[in-house]
Design brief:
Strand content of chain B: 15-25%
Structural class of chain B: alpha/beta
Strand order of the largest sheet of chain B: 2-1-3-4-5
Helix content of chain B: 40-55%
Number of helices of chain A: 12
Bound molecules: guanosine-5'-triphosphate, magnesium ion
Structural class of chain A: alpha/beta
Strand content of chain A: 5-15%
Strand order of the largest sheet of chain A: 4-2-5-1-6-7-8
Shape of chain A: globular
Largest sheet of chain A: 7 strands, parallel
Radius of gyration of chain A: 22 Å
Largest sheet of chain B: 5 strands, parallel
Number of domains of chain B: 1
Oligomer: heterodimer
Number of strands of chain B: 5
CATH superfamily of the largest domain in chain A: P-loop containing nucleotide triphosphate hydrolases
Shape of chain B: globular
Order of helices and strands of chain B: EHEHEHEHEH
Radius of gyration of chain B: 13 Å
Distance between the termini of chain A: 57 Å
Largest interface: A-B, 38 and 39 residues
CATH superfamily of chain B: Cobalamin-binding domain
Number of domains of chain A: 3
CATH architecture of chain B: 3-Layer(aba) Sandwich
CATH class of the largest domain in chain A: Alpha Beta
CATH class of chain B: Alpha Beta
CATH topology of the largest domain in chain A: Rossmann fold
CATH topology of chain B: Rossmann fold
Chain lengths: ~325, ~130
């Protein structure tokens, strides 16, 4: 294992450490940025010029579809091809305790000690825009460190998770046999963001039926003349179809038009998400300090005003 | 909601014994106490545990050991963390440990030993107090 010296915690020294290839510095910086500790934005400003070369792949699909096992196999194959890999494994925080059980690593043991691989588990921590921005920031830190392929695993059920994979260059949707009925249900929202479909657990009966369902769904939802996303079969457990999958994931995009649109949309989303965060923080601080929010609450409690008028009045000074 | 620092704990099982239940219960309990728990399951090598602790930047490594090999496994994890520049990570042990071994474990840097049956709340409180 690589020996890394104890690192100082100022963001500047952590950023230097990341560029010098210090693993502990990268891990520490990720924590500070994830926690939004003081200086995180300065750190990201310093990181940003060193990013842009990594390929970011989003991996989503229903719970237990084999995303982590597949992520592990993909990473292993990419390492064999000479790549440096970053993995971000997202699991939900408990809405009750705020804690989280991050278990994706269970299926990734095989790559724990490969020096080319860095794995980071992240909890959603509640806020929707917040999580996807944090995932994007973590991916950038890995990129600046020198990871050239970054895999982001999320459970593809909620809107939060969809927001997260939207930050990826390519999104892979993992389906499994016996899920046919769900394919239709998935259509809204999730299906539009997938660039690639994988039917995992193809060692079990029913894989071809799911393939057929996906093709049918794609047929219905795609416009004439547009290329439809590839659909591949894998067994992460038996290491089947992984090389073909990796080749497809790493192939250069031919649908450049679609990509430019996507790129612009992504940048806009990021700006809005950062603005939203800042504006909300600013307003919270200001209205707590000058008492406007307490006054507004009082008026509502005394039933003098409705919330809609209150918001209109509060915002009046800015708009 | 939940802004700012979160305590992160790695729950790991080094060695060969196949009893996962205790570690599982503690992992869930700590999650319910508000910690972010990274759970890696059975049969971890100490090198895997150290790598995971560093990458995940955890505050605490909890080792669940029932195999009787607690002395050598703990020493390896503590040495590994030190070599990785992560000696500030707190190491605690849970499982079956004879009383007479506890002083040696503490001497090598293990902060606390929780024998089988300790309520999770006690472990959670200890972590909160000591980090
Ligand atoms: N038969 C079969 N089982 C598989 C395959 N891939 C994964 N599994 C099993 O499916 C279960 C779930 O795998 P994970 O990789 O944890 O699935 P996941 O989608 O990451 O799960 P969550 O993160 O909990 O949503 C495990 O028991 C795996 O061993 C496969 O190709 N075939
Ligand atoms: Mg998983």
């Amino acid at each position: 294992m690589k020996i890394t010296k104890t690192v100082e915690n100022s963001w500047q020294s952590l950023v230097d450490g990341v560029q010098a290839g210090n693993i502990r510095a990268m891990a520490r910086l990720i924590t500070q940025v994830e926690n939004r500790e003081p200086g995180w934005k300065d750190a990201m400003k310093a990181i940003y010029p060193h990013t842009g070369s990594a390929r970011i792949l989003g991996i989503t699909g229903s719970p237990g579809a084999g995303k982590s096992t597949l992520t592990c196999e993909i990473a292993d194959e990419l390492v064999k091809r000479g790549h440096q890999i970053g993995i971000i494994a997202v699991d939900p925080s408990s809405p009750f305790s705020g804690g989280a059980l991050l278990g994706d690593r269970l299926r990734m043991k095989k790559i724990f000690t490969l020096k080319e691989v860095f794995i980071r588990s992240m909890a959603t921590r509640g806020t929707l825009g917040g999580m996807s921005q944090a995932a994007r920031d973590v991916a950038r830190i890995m990129d600046a460190f020198g990871k050239d392929v970054i895999l982001i695993e999320t459970v593809g059920v909620g809107q939060d998770e969809i927001e997260v994979v939207k930050t990826a260059d390519r999104v892979m949707m993992v389906c499994i046999p016996g899920q046919g009925d769900n394919i239709q249900a998935l259509k809204a929202g999730v299906m539009e963001i997938a660039d690639l479909y994988v039917v995992n657990k193809a060692d079990m009966p029913g894989a071809d039926e799911v393939m057929a369902d996906i093709y049918a769904m794609l047929e219905l939802s795609s416009e004439a003349g547009q290329p439809t996303p590839p659909v591949l079969k894998t067994s992460a457990l038996k290491n089947q179809g992984i090389r073909e999958l990796v080749a497809t994931l790493m192939a250069d995009s031919t649908e450049s038009n679609r990509h430019d649109d996507k790129e612009e949309m992504r940048i806009k989303e990021e700006i809005f998400s950062l603005v939203e965060d800042e504006v909300l923080r600013f307003l919270r601080r200001r209205w707590e300090e000058n008492g406007e929010i307490a006054e507004a609450a009082r008026q509502m409690i005394e039933q003098k005003k409705d919330p809609y008028s209150i918001v209109a009045e509060l915002l009046n000074q800015f708009i | 909601m939940n802004e700012g620092k979160k305590m992160r704990v790695l729950m790991a099982k080094p060695g060969l014994d196949g009893h996962e239940r205790g570690a599982h219960v503690v992992a869930h309990g700590l999650r319910d106490a508000g910690f972010e728990v990274i759970y890696t399951g059975l049969r971890q090598t100490t090198a895997q545990i150290v790598n995971t602790a560093v990458q995940e930047d955890v505050d605490v490594v909890g080792l669940s050991i029932l195999s009787g090999a607690h002395l050598s496994l703990s020493q390896k994890v503590i040495d590994g963390l030190k070599n990785a520049g992560a000696e500030d990570v707190m190491v605690i042990i849970g499982g079956i440990v004879p009383d007479e071994d506890i002083p040696s474990l503490k001497k090598m840097g293990v902060r606390e030993v929780f024998t089988a049956g300790t309520p999770v709340s006690e472990i959670a409180n200890f972590i909160t107090r000591s980090t």
